[in-house]
Amino acid sequence: MIRFPAAQLLRIVAIAAILLWSLAPIGLGVITSLSTQTDVQAVPARWLPHHATLDAYRSLLGGSGDFRAGGTVSESGAFTHALWNSASIMMLSTLAILCVAISAGYAFARLRFPGRGALFWAIVATTVVPVFTVVIALFGFLADAHLIDRKLGLVLVFVSTTTPLAMWLVHNHVKQLPTEPEEAALLDGCTRWQAFWHVALPQMRSGIAALSAIIVLLVWGEFLIPLLLTSTNASKPVTVFIPEYIGKYTTNYPLLAAAGVLAMLPPTVVALVLNRHIRGMLSGSS
Amino acid sequence: MGMLMVAPAVIITAALVVYPLIKGFQTSLESADTAVGGQPRFVGLGNYGDVLRSSTARDAIVHTVIYVALAVTFELMLGLIVAVALHRAFRGRGIVLAILLVPWALPSVVSGVLWRRVFDPDSGLLNSMLQQLHLVSHPHVWMASRGWALVLIALVHVWGVLPLVSLILIAGLQSIPEEVYSASAVDGATPLRQFRHITLPLLRPSIAVALTIGTVWAIKIFDEIYVLNGTALNTRSILMEVYNTTFVNADFPHGTALALLLTAVTALLAAGYAVAFGRSTT
User: Fold this and answer.
1) What would the DSSP string read from start to end of B91-146?
2) B266–A40: do the CB atoms touch at under 8 Å?
3) Which chain B residue's Cα is nearest to A175?
4) CATH number of the domain bearing residue B188
5) Partner residue opposite A268 with nearest CB, options B102, B109, B117
């Protein structure tokens, strides 16, 4: 394409706009979390706080009982516990989903067995079912099994609703890998299992990294499922905890923003560290 | 060995997705008034009719159609601009792409929280800015009027989904060979004509994927609405109406009926796009 100086300039403006659009709300959240309620309520609005303060974080993590969040008292240690709930649910779910999805995705892509095509498409088809529909139907079953308001119940639901998508992504990834190394291993006398475990799995390393990141982000960010299936602080993850800081009439924005900033730290780190892998998998196959 | 390796996935999907769906369908055909302990009565498709006649559900359907239309339009238009700006190599491209991805990675509850302060009627930054510019005389309660609320909520949703749509379109642009452009440039085509007659047609498969993903994500919008405006009637989406019917009013038959209608529409739309664009999304 012929290079126009105007086109070049246009592109620089567009890139600056993209960066501003992506970062401004996050920056605003960080600034708000360092403000006081007086700063936030100032008229006309004050963009920067008079004195940056960590009070919001202190009351969130330390839990001073007198810090009122629009009617909701932030209980000592409750938010830290919510972070722990999110982390433990995320780790257990991710581990379980990876095991099930990698084994099935690989087998559907490489092995021949009766019913392969039909089973594969049946599982993939369930990815269009809104998760919510499944959860309503599962509610009775979970209640009977005493898994409501239990982290284990959430893990079970995440595994059942995320496995189809994860399996599909693994399948597409394996399809793109060369078959020769495995064939060579089989000729050399490896069993099918050994060829999978020692040859194919190491080849899939970058795909598995991307998949793990995507599952971690999906599970960490899920709101509706835990909103339905948890009722006490014992099992509530951060996403369910945060909206409770929104007051009916006035909202303690510094506290709310601090909670948001803490909840977005893990996903931001994952997205930045593994972004090359994630981008590859998102643009390649889904 | 193949059977053994797929068994866990097949069992989980069958027991925890397909079986509940069938049970759910059964529930949706029963009468709602079984609270007194009586046997559920078979009412056929009656619940579906009730749901489609209820005014709150109808409003929720209208809102959802507006959310989807706004979200998909913004996502495709902005996504094309982002993709055109970022698909060629330049210094710092890796960092820009990494930053682009971040809004998608954040929990949608957190996106809602970040934008909430902007739209707050009393201490909001949007009102303050408009007042300082003398564009409005008194603070506007954005989430109270239906039109503005729907647009702004859709915008917050787009903030989270745009990265995904952009990445798909960038990959699509990169798959178009450079020679096509140089050849047409020799023939005297301007960049704008190139975009209309080369880029857009060759980008069709990527646009189809982006359209499908944008629709499937927007049709189940819930989190952003919940954080920005609670379950208020003027912004309620279908999923939120399902939530309200099922868990607030404890009416599983009607809630499930609406949820299954949403499922059917989502599946039909996804299949429709695949057929319309002549290529499956895999």
Assistant:
1) TTHHHHHHHHHHHHHS-HHHHHHHHHHHH-TTT-HHHHHHHHTTS-SS---TTTSH
2) no
3) B282
4) 1.10.3720.10
5) B102
Please give the domain boundaries of chain A with CATH numbers for all domains. 5-73 (no CATH), 78-247+269-285 (1.10.3720.10)
Identify whether the C-beta of residue B210 lies closer than 8 Å to the C-beta of residue B165: yes
Q: How does pLDDT run along chain B (282 residues), one tens digit per residue?
A: 888 899 999 999 998 899 988 988 988 898 876 555 566 778 888 889 998 999 999 999 999 999 999 999 999 999 999 999 998 888 889 999 999 999 999 999 999 999 998 998 877 888 888 888 888 878 888 888 888 999 999 999 999 999 999 999 999 998 888 888 888 888 888 878 888 888 888 888 889 889 988 998 999 999 999 999 998 999 999 999 999 998 888 888 899 999 999 999 998 988 888 777 655 444
Mutate to test the interface with B, among A26, A132, A159, A265 (most CBs of B within 10 A): A132
Range of the domain at B85: 41-276
* Nearest CA distance, A279 vs chain B (angstrom): 7
Residue among A82, A221, A102 at smallest CA distance from A168: A102
3-state secondary structure of A72: strand
**Least CB–CB distance from A138: residue in B20, B171, B220:** B20
- Tens digit of each residue's pLDDT (9 = 90 or more) over B150-204: 999 999 999 999 999 999 999 999 888 888 888 888 888 887 888 888 888 888 8
Closest residue, chain B, to A32 (C-alpha): B117
Q: Is residue B2 part of a domain?
A: no
ipTM for this model:
0.89
- Interface contact B9-A228, CB threshold 8 A: no
Residue B58 lies in a domain: yes
Round the average pLDDT of chain A to a whole number and report it.
88
Contact A126 B239 (CB under 8 A): no
List B residues 77-136 in contact with A (Cβ-Cβ < 8 A): 81-82, 84-86, 94, 96-111, 113-118, 120, 122-125, 127-129, 131-132
Residues B70, A209: Cα–Cα separation, whole Å: 34
